[in-house]
Amino acid sequence: MTHLTSLPDTERPFLARMFAKDAKNYHVWSYRQWLVRHFSLWDSELPNVDSLLTADVRNNSAWNHRWFVLFGQHVDPASGRGMDGAGNIVDEDLIDREVEYTQAKIRLAPQNQSPWNYLRGLLRKRGSLLECKAFAEEFGGDVDGEGEGCRSSRALDFLADCWAEEKEKEKAGKALELLAKRFDPIRRNYWNYRRGLLGLGLVEA
């Protein structure tokens, strides 16, 4: 395969059959990424990812592949670092489009962690989560009212980081407390670790 200069006609149907059997198969996704990089399919691959996310918005592998397609072209696969500094360039128009796209997908399944993680990655390229704070508040509920109206623990987690970024330590801590006690108690130790980073005490069972 490495001696070929263009993608063989057999490969896309082969990948489609494999994904029909298991849309989250790690080995198939790794092979797909290799094809994209080897044959420089960056521009033509995005519609295929759109189709997979339309079929299953919870497909974390497809979200990871979307990031690879949009931001992996100038990244050295061996080191994970940008080549010649290109990996550090922020395309503001691209980020704007992806934020809008991701928010639309979150609205379809607010508890789905994959697009929330993807959104964080986008915003960190700009250096701040705060531009999407109001969006997260649509799903995070009333922290002062013990989380009433919360539709997504992922949003509450996102808001905790927003408030921490704004130096609103007590409000961030309250969000983490609600996650530990009410919305995600199975990960109480993790939420307590996060509270510890803020200098706050543990939430007891």
Written account of the structure:
This protein has 205 residues and is mainly α. The protein contains 10 helices and no strands. Helix 3 (42-55) packs antiparallel against helix 4, helix 8 (153-165) packs antiparallel against helix 9 and helix 9 (169-183) runs antiparallel to helix 10 (188-197).
| Class per helix and strand makeup | mainly alpha
Strand element count? 0
Terminal Cα span = 56 Å
Question: Rg from C-alpha positions?
Answer: 20 Å
Per DSSP, what share of the residues sits in E-state strands of 2 or more residues?
under 5%
| Secondary-structure element pattern, one letter each | HHHHHHHHHH
Relative helix content: 55-70%
Low-pLDDT regions: none
Main sheet record = none
Q: What's the number of helices?
A: 10
Kindly state the mean pLDDT as a whole number?
Answer: 91
The global form is elongated
Task: Provide tags for this entry.
205 residues, mainly alpha, elongated
Give a short overview.
With 205 residues, the protein is an all-alpha fold. Helix content is 62%, strand content 0%.
Please outline the helices and strands.
Layout: H1 11-21, H2 26-38, H3 42-55, H4 60-71, H5 92-108, H6 113-126, H7 133-140, H8 153-165, H9 169-183, H10 188-197
